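=== RUN LOG ===
request id: a7f3
mode: sequence -> structure
chains: 1
length: 135
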Amino acid sequence: MSEPVRLEEIAEAVARTAAARPLLGHLTSIMPSIIEHNVSLESVCDFKTGSLYLMQDCARFLHSRTPSLSIPAYEELIHRTIVMITGLLPLSHPSSVALEALEPPELAPFRYNFERELARGLLLLLRGLSQERKV
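=== RESULT ===
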């Protein structure tokens, strides 16, 4: 069996993968506010059911590579990853007016780098989930 993957590697890989797929990130970020308001109940139910199965498969795979976290912990990671992508993507791609407004150095905290911020958020979440298990 191969060495377990470190939590930092998981966070970085997920962030790198999400950053390399901007269309997926864009669709994820507009899904709850736009897309899901313009489709049938059946379509939303089918999509959510398929997403649940995919999340469960991904959680089992991650657990098989790094069993220090439970399958439910990995499911929570995936769930919260979607929440982070939904919020971070628009923040990291501001309008031209907002981009210009953020030029002063004192506003640097409002300049978001999608991949870096996502990796950091995921690592903090993974560390928290690993500590939760020990309590």
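=== NOTES ===
The mean pLDDT is 93.
The helical segments are 7-19, 22-30, 41-65, 71-92, 96-101, 114-134.
=== END ===
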